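My main concern about presentation is that the manuscript never shows what a single data entry looks like. An entry of this sort, consisting of the sequence and the corresponding backbone structure tokens, reads as follows:
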Amino acid sequence: MSNDVYHGLAAFGPGKDALNVKPHSYPAKKFEDYDVEIQITHCGVCGSDIHTATGGWGDITYPQVVGHEIVGHVVRIGSKVDATRYAIGTRVGVGAQCRTCMTCVDCKNKKEHCCRKGIDTYTGVYEDGYISQGGYADYFRCHYNWVVPIPDGLPSEIAAPMLCAGITTYQPLKKFKVGPGSKVGVIGIGGLGHLGIQWAVALGADVTAISSSDRKRRDAIEVLKAQNYLNTSDPEAVAASTGTFDVVLCTAFGADTNWDNLIRLVASDGAFVVLGLPEQPISIKPFSLMTQVAVVGSHVGPPHMIEEMLNFAVEKGVRTIVEVMPMEKAAEALHQLDTKGARYRIVLER
């Protein structure tokens, strides 16, 4: 059943104490004709949850429930929602966005994720001033266009992280037409990177996992099936790899990251795609771009591509590597991700 008061775990102020999320009851957004309401069973823990809750990416309004890798079951639909596609009980998911304008050029061209009037799954502001609250909760409701059916071949805890980490890495590989003959580098073997490696391998590319140590070499080669491994602490290996990649996905960074050295790994006319988002500006020397390298950002992906990606994961056997924790341990999960990390994604289960 549905109701108009939700119960979640919220951050109540900025800084690291925000990770100590606490029980919070709050009104649901107004239910509209195009809405689907979901009873949540799983929600992935994303680095974005930390950057947002702590205020690292900018000021937000508290209390704030985060979480944008939501999986659950349909419990209510609006009068203008397809009752077959979204039948009561259908298992569905919602990622980092929950509504777009549906009328702009980007929306009409099936690039809804680029809509300038889009509303994020949490911290988004609706026309009536309501601030969207995320998936560390019992229910969520939003416009049906961003509610994607989960295929039977994907367990909920595996599917949840794909709704953000998965599409964040899948979409740029599709945009830049990665396939057989492509050479792809993936910087960072973590929540984003371990999926980026698997997507690129499944698309038929020659894939190099890139990290600052050899600690994850075995996982990268034996588990994720990357064909190659580059340790950026080895100057000779880095020099030998300069200008060899058609696409580099940058999913991780450090305070002392040398962005110019990483960009030089890309071949002429190739793309360096920034996916992990630092809280501070990055610095690039103009000469690093003189080989016609494109440095671009990428923001999740449109709903049709999320659905495509989930089915592709079933077809190719791509799987998120997860640690599952009870929803009530969300604070513990956030602190773990912030201090020790995860192998490779934490998912909260109700």
The chain has a mean pLDDT of 97.
